[in-house]
């Protein structure tokens, strides 16, 4: 009985881990990404050259969203806040100050559902390993 309960709990945890992406539409996310994100982050998710260092204005260029970047290193709620509120506000809400971000907020332009569709699209391009790492960042160990 105990083994059955553990199996059910583990399965529930795995299902819960993906709850923010359940029912999301990566195809719609791809179209929204092309419209709202690709001009800075690249049509192929490649980001801007030199994204690891601030530009002359002190603002880092837009990072890639493919696996060469660090998007998959962050929890989904942070990525959602970054998208909707903008980089500066998302980080300051978490106590990070002194970081200059060029990422504008898209609240009022995109709904939360649309932002999640975009994140689902981006996530769909990652390897299984990157998706699992990002899931663990979001939900912790099962």
From TrEMBL:
Query: What span is annotated as the signal peptide, if there is one?
Result: 1-17
Keyword presence, Magnesium: no
Q: Which residues cross the membrane?
A: none
The chain positions of domain Cytochrome c read: 24-126
Q: Which UniProt keywords apply?
A: Heme, Iron, Metal-binding, Signal
Annotated region described as Disordered, given as residue ranges: 45-72
Tell me, what's a Pfam family for it? Cytochrom_C
Under the heading InterPro entries, the entry gives:
Cyt_c-like_dom, Cyt_c-like_dom_sf, Cytochrome_c-type_DH
Q: Does the keyword Signal apply?
A: yes
Protein name (Swiss-Prot/TrEMBL): Cytochrome c
Source organism (scientific name):
Pseudodonghicola flavimaris
């Amino acid at each position: 009985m105990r083994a059955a309960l553990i199996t059910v709990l583990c399965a529930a945890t795995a299902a819960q881990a993906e709850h923010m992406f359940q029912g999301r539409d990566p195809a719609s996310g791809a179209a929204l990404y092309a419209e709202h994100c690709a001009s800075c982050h690249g049509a192929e998710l490649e980001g801007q050259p030199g994204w690891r260092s601030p530009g002359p204005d002190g603002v880092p260029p837009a990072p890639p969203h493919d696996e060469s970047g660090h998007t998959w290193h962050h929890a989904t709620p942070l990525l959602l806040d970054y998208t909707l509120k903008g980089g500066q506000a998302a980080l300051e809400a978490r106590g990070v100050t002194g970081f200059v971000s060029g990422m504008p907020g898209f609240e009022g332009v995109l709904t939360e559902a649309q932002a999640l569709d975009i994140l689902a699209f981006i996530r769909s391009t990652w390897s299984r390993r990157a998706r699992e790492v990002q899931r663990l960042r979001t939900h912790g160990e099962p």
